[in-house]
Amino acid sequence: MGILFAKLMTVFGDREHKVIIVGLDNAGKTTILYQFLTKEAVHTSPTIGSNVEEISVRKTRFLVWDIGGQESLRASWSSYYCNTEIVILVVDSTDRERLTLTKEELHRMLAHEELQNAAVLVLANKQDMKGSMTAAEISQCLTLSSITGHSWHVQACCALTGEGLPASLDWMRSRVLAS
Ligand code: G3D
């Protein structure tokens, strides 16, 4: 009965999918989270804390945790990994100097056993800014093509206008429905 119920919940899209938003400070994580709430997604409820929100995309529900990116907070990222289905890595596309640091954080994170089944969405944010790197450049610098154990996708976006974010939500939805 329990298994049947769980299956029915999945079919009707009632299960909540855990997502974490990571990235260095100032990348645009919080702006993106709140854009998700005001654009394609329907804001269903203000949840546990100021940086945890539930968003619903055509009946697929995500619980999205925006995790702080300052150096002092990065050490605690792993405490959020359990049951995470999607990791959103937000990159400030103008921040060339810290891209190597972002790369190291990304690959360290993906080696963590609790994220072995997580998919990775890299958001190349701040595309509106002059001199920003393209999604392809960021993909290359982060050596995304070397990631074989995780499904990944890179998306150019601008959190201020929301450009690129509906496509990101569509990818997230397709990932969780496929798994
Ligand atoms: P964080 O949560 O990753 O630390 P925030 O980052 O969401 O707080 O954003 C950091 C700053 O970048 C904010 O500016 C925010 O408005 C800006 N920002 C976020 N996304 C974009 C974008 O796509 N384009 C541009 N031009 N700016 C963006 P302030 O001035 O408030 O610090």
Automatic annotation (TrEMBL):
InterPro entries per the UniProt record, alphabetical: P-loop_NTPase, Small_GTP-bd, Small_GTPase_ARF, Small_GTPase_ARF/SAR
Quick one: which residues bind GTP? G23, L24, D25, N26, A27, G28, K29, T30, G69, N125, K126, Q127, D128
PROSITE patterns per the UniProt record, alphabetical: ARF, RAB
> What UniProt keywords are attached to this protein's entry?
GTP-binding, Magnesium, Metal-binding, Nucleotide-binding
Is DNA-binding given among the entry's keywords? no
Sorted alphabetically, which Pfam families does this protein's record hold? Arf
Protein name per the record: ADP-ribosylation factor-like 5C
Q: Which organism is it from?
A: Megalops atlanticus
